[in-house]
Design brief:
- There is one protein chain.
- The chain is mainly beta.
- It has one helix at 22-32; strands at residues 38-42, 52-56, 75-87, 94-99, 102-116, 129-137, 142-148, 161-167.
- The chain is built from one helix and eight strands; from the N terminus they run αββββββββ.
């Protein structure tokens, strides 16, 4: 801990100046290394795992904004984890799912949000589809699940269920 200099606050009638975090970044970089400090920036991509990139902590702000049309989880798993799930119809959310040995009954759900593969980047993604659902279990935890495929056609994916993120 260091003593802090007292500063007089500016009147609320005057526009506030932007916070300068460069001193904080320098202090943290000295302790953990600059390579450990980064922030995320949006990247134009339909696939969630490709929709962001790491940039240096003090890199200039980009003009791109994060998409707001569908909420995204606060924690995206490094790799989607397979879950066992049961849904009534191909376009319905699961009634329950089993993740890491724990059975979770779905209380409410929203979706599907259909995401297609980026066929212009990879021929293998030409027919791939995912149906994402935001689900809440009976204990109040919220998850982001998807079914690999459209639920009807085998060429669109394995039809298996995966957990891709957790809402805070």
């Amino acid at each position: 801990a260091e003593p802090m200099d007292r500063r007089q606050t500016v009147s609320s009638l005057i526009a506030e100046e932007e916070a300068d975090v460069s001193d904080l970044i320098d202090t943290l970089a000295n302790r953990v290394g600059m390579q450990a400090l980064y922030r995320f920036a949006p990247v134009e991509s339909d696939l969630p795992e490709r929709s962001f990139c790491r940039v240096p902590a003090l890199a200039p702000e980009e003009t791109k904004d994060w998409p707001e049309h569908w909420p995204r989880p606060t924690r995206l798993l490094a790799r989607p984890e397979p879950v066992q799930a049961m849904a009534e119809l191909p376009d319905q959310p699961p009634l329950f799912f089993i993740w890491r040995g724990v059975r979770r009954k779905v209380k409410c759900a929203d979706g599907p949000e259909r995401v297609f593969g980026e066929w212009w980047k990879n021929d293998a993604e030409l027919t791939i589809a995912r149906d994402y659902f935001r689900v809440e279990d009976t204990s109040g935890e919220r998850f982001w699940l998807y079914r690999a495929g459209d639920g009807e056609h085998g060429e669109t994916g394995s039809q298996g269920w995966f957990l891709h993120g957790i809402f805070g």
